[in-house]
Amino acid sequence: MLILTIRTDKPEAEIGLYKAKSQLAYHSWQAHRQLAETLHSEIKKLLESEQKNWQDIEGLVVFKGPGSFTGLRIGASVANALADTLELKIIATTGKNWREDGIKSLLVSKNDGQIVPEYGAEARTTTQKK
Fold first, then answer.
1. Which residue among 3, 11, 83, 86 is buried most deeply as judged by most CB within 10 Å?
2. Which CATH superfamily is domain 2-107 in?
3. Residue 101 and residue 56: Cα distance in Å, rounded?
4. How far is CA 85 from the centre of its chain?
5. Through-space distance between the first and last CA atoms of the chain, rounded to whole angstroms
6. The pTM is what?
7. What is the pLDDT of residues 64-106, one digit of tens each?
């Protein structure tokens, strides 16, 4: 099973490509405010580095939080779109061993279907100024 991992809760984003539990490739970059513009292209480069394409992905593991509101939202949106479009199983995990726990869940055919970020606190919103 070819698994793509995504973590976008910090200014440094990270993605990985695994064949079952074995890491094939890993990449991190300072995405910061360019995460939405760079995430897809970085995933594509990672896939190409292993002579793979989008259709070769069989499952997704995503870090769901806590962390940056915008970063987690972007990562979850991209992962949900990929899972829906490519009909992939998707797992959202948290904690120190998020990657390993998510991969184990995928390998026993678990599927969250659609993931929702966990921000770690209630959103602080302000009223719109006129």
1. 3
2. ATPase, nucleotide binding domain (3.30.420.40)
3. 22
4. 15
5. 53
6. 0.91
7. 999 989 999 999 999 999 999 999 999 999 999 999 999 999 9
pLDDT value at 126 more than 90: no
CB 121 within 8 A of CB 79: no
**Mean pLDDT value of segment 29-51:** 96
44 vs 120, more confident: 44
- CA-closest candidate to residue 114, choices 67, 85, 79: 79
Q: Give domain limits for the chain.
A: 2-107
101 is written with which tokens? 């726990």
The CB density around residue 45, as the number of other CB atoms within 10 Å, is 14
Asked whether the CA dihedral 13, 18, 21, 26 is positive or negative, the reply is negative
What the block records as the tokens of 54 is: 């989008």
CA distances in angstroms from 54 to 5, 21, 45, listed in the order given: 13, 19, 11
